[in-house]
Design brief:
Low-confidence stretches: 262-266
Number of domains: 3
Strand content: 5-15%
Strand order of the largest sheet: 1-2-3-4
Mean pLDDT: 82
Order of helices and strands: EEEEHHHHHHHHHHEEEHHHHHHEE
Number of helices: 16
Shape: extended
Distance between the termini: 97 Å
Radius of gyration: 33 Å
Number of strands: 9
Largest sheet: 4 strands, antiparallel
Length: 482
């Protein structure tokens, strides 16, 4: 056993001391702090902490003590549980966790290709493992989680035991993430926290730990980060611009002239008009249904005919037609209520497909064959058309933050706000029909005004103008009774 100098007891079973090379006297700065670990019925171990002695510097000594306690904790866990062969270091555990996520995602993708339902659910989360979710996991782990684990390693140690990370340390993850990206949203930080808890859940399944810790969650800040809403004037301009794109003879004339010069094909004229028409209908459908705009990255969010339903209903003694659109979004489902005027646009989309011989299960489908798709394949998004419109109308100029930009989600905000303002809809019912929560509606969409709500707030509290006159006492002018 090597001889240690300047030995100092740190706790039961652990002490620190300095190991110096031959010929080096005590006053020299050369040397390294070592930890000496003692166990019952086990050999004493002497392990380097990686902390330089530096002539007995107090700060270095404190670092050495902390490193020794960490080493003692690792060794203690191994000797007490007999699980020295189990991975208990965080970076190694994280690597194993990522490999497991990829494996589960691959199995689910194979199931989908074979026409079977996916078998691997996300434990402690929502939905099923997929290639997309595995990619997101890897991105978050590499950008935030592994750097966080690295920041916890002391001295020359390359990894840290999961048993030596305190709950208080885990609670600092939000500040650490903001150190990497100062403008990171609370929702993104929550995704990092979710991945850390998944790693701990994986360690729990391996019987490496017995408790999955809770981690402090950042405030949602929904009001501060809410996307800006669409104004009535902006809505009018969008409607007129999209309609003009397929009706404006000037625009069509330019395309026809280009086709005669061979700059575009003759068929491009009608194709341009069709896609412009579909973009207009897409905007109207989003406005009339209040659904989250399909992203294109997840097929389940694409609108399908099988999810659109019309129902006969009776309102004030008159038979009318109502419609809903079933949605699978954010790992939950709901039936969006289509505004009465919106039914026309769905029927128009059906008529459009029938007239052009488009056979598709999708509400928005390509009207032509193309090297990139077949006729009837889903149109996954209208991103280019949206960007063109924003530029043409001068919207989003100078808006660098997402909360200041108009996006397709503005139609959803417009729908929900209008239902609250004009429809007098119960917030609980609206939350269910919009696939959200009452908290989100109250914090994001609901604009309460005491003045506007006075008739309802004060009902039953007045007895009419006649009660405003009071009987008064002579001399003082005090009112006697009311």
């Amino acid at each position: 056993m090597p001889k240690l100098l300047h030995v100092e007891k740190v706790g039961v079973g652990v002490s620190i001391g300095v190991l110096q090379g031959n010929g080096i006297v005590d006053t020299d700065y050369a040397g390294t702090w070592y930890a000496r670990l003692k166990y019952e019925r086990k050999p004493v171990k002497t392990v380097a902490t990686g902390i330089a002695w530096q002539g007995g510097d107090a700060a270095q000594k404190e670092k050495a003590k902390a490193a020794a306690i960490e080493l003692w904790g690792e060794q203690y866990h191994q000797t007490q549980t007999g699980k020295a062969d189990k991975t208990h270091h965080l970076k190694a555990l994280t690597d194993e966790y990522v490999r497991e996520v990829v494996r589960l995602a691959d199995e689910n993708e194979n199931d989908k290709r074979a026409g079977r339902p996916p078998r691997n659910e996300v434990k402690g989360g929502r939905g099923y493992h997929s290639t997309k979710s595995a990619s997101a996991t890897i991105s978050i782990v590499n950008k935030y989680v592994l750097p966080f684990w690295n920041s916890l390693c002391q001295g020359k140690r390359k990894d840290i035991s999961i048993h030596n990370v305190t709950p208080q340390t885990l609670d600092t993850i939000a500040d650490f993430c903001r150190g990497i990206e100062p403008t990171l949203s609370p929702s993104q930080i929550l995704k990092v926290i979710t991945q850390i808890r998944h790693i701990y859940r994986f360690a729990y399944s391996q019987e490496t730990i017995s408790i999955i810790p809770q981690i402090a969650r950042p405030k949602a800040q929904m009001k501060e980060r809410a996307r800006r809403e669409l104004t009535d004037e902006e809505h009018r301009q969008i409607t007129e611009w999209t309609r003009a794109r397929y009706l404006d003879e000037g625009t069509m004339g330019q395309i026809q002239a280009a086709s005669k010069l061979g700059e575009v094909s003759i068929t491009a004229v009608d194709t341009y008009r069709d896609y412009a028409y579909l973009f207009h209908l897409w905007c109207r459908v989003l406005l009339m249904s209040g659904i989250r705009p399909p992203t294109g990255g997840t097929d389940s969010t694409l609108m399908r005919w099988e999810d659109y339903k019309e129902y006969p209903i009776e309102i004030e003694g008159k038979e009318q037609t109502a419609a809903t659109l079933h949605r699978e979004e954010k790992n939950h489902s709901y039936d969006a209520a289509i505004l009465p005027d919106g039914i026309f646009y769905f029927r128009e989309l059906k008529r459009f497909q029938e007239e052009r011989g488009i056979e598709s299960k999708y509400i928005f489908a390509h009207p032509i064959d193309d090297p990139r798709w077949r006729k009837g394949d889903p149109i996954k998004n209208f991103r280019k058309q949206w960007d063109t419109m924003m530029k043409a109308l001068g919207f989003n100029e100078g808006a660098t933050l997402q909360k200041d930009r108009i996006t397709p989600s503005a139609f959803r905000s417009y729908y929900i706000t209008a239902r609250l303002k004009y429809g007098g809809v119960d917030i609980g019912k609206l939350a269910l029909a919009a696939g959200t929560s009452t908290d989100v509606i109250y914090q994001h969409y609901y604009k309460f005004s005491t003045e506007a709500e006075l008739p309802e707030l004060t009902v039953g509290g007045f007895y009419g103008e006649t009660r405003l006159e009071a009987e008064r006492q002579e001399g003082t002018g005090y009112y006697i009774s009311r």
